[in-house]
Amino acid sequence: MDKTRGWYPGHMVATQKTIRELAPYLTAFVEVVDARAPEATRHRPLDGWIGRTPKVVVLNKADLADPRVTQAWLGWYRAQGMVAVALNAEANGADGVLRKRLSAQFASPFRLAVVGLPNLGKSTLLNRMVGTRRVATGARPGITRGPQWIRLPGGWEWLDLPGVVTPAKSRDARFKILGVVPYQADESEDLAAIAWAFLHPQGPDVASGEEWLDYGRLRGFLSTGGAIDRQRTAEAILAGFRKGTFGRLSLERPGTAHDEKP
Hints:
By secondary structure, the protein is an alpha/beta fold. The protein has helices at 10-22, 46-50, 67-79, 94-105, 122-130, 173-177, 188-198, 213-219, 230-243, and strands at 28-34, 55-60, 83-86, 110-116, 148-152, 156-160.
């Protein structure tokens, strides 16, 4: 059974319409993706909505990704004729990195729209660019509810839009592990097993069994009778994966398949 079936808020449908209508009047779209899985977390239909309007791909959360893999992705995007930049939207100076790249690529005035899947740091990045916390942020998808224009001195205009995601994408386990879409409590063990497999050299295609429970044993996550608390262990693994507790990891590399497998 698809645990996320029906998770497609109406404001996301409206966002698609807004993107199509505004595209001809924008300097560029800034598409925010997760540096740990940049191609998986791109919204493919976006290319058809924006027409000929240029696009800049921002590999956000680069501090959580393998730096060598991130550099390979930047080279891969350049080879595709695309503009890309890697950064951590929560870090001081992130705005300078993106502003410099945009200024080198385009001429003032700048009319830019921040787009992408939910919960990848779009509003956090936009807050950096505008210098104040004018845009709502949060640790769950759907915080941004409608288009928001922010006009600044120097010819900069920013448009913040709600995240967009397709129902098909929402079934991808990587999206749930990275926190792009929500998951049900009874999915946490399966997701923890998949996340744990990414920590091993064999990669996520190797069956991990229940090796992830070792983490609960080491952390002392025990229930009555000394048994490992499976739910607590699973949630700790998923939270640690998203926060970078286990080190800087990338879930995909250039040249690998970008289909929607778990």
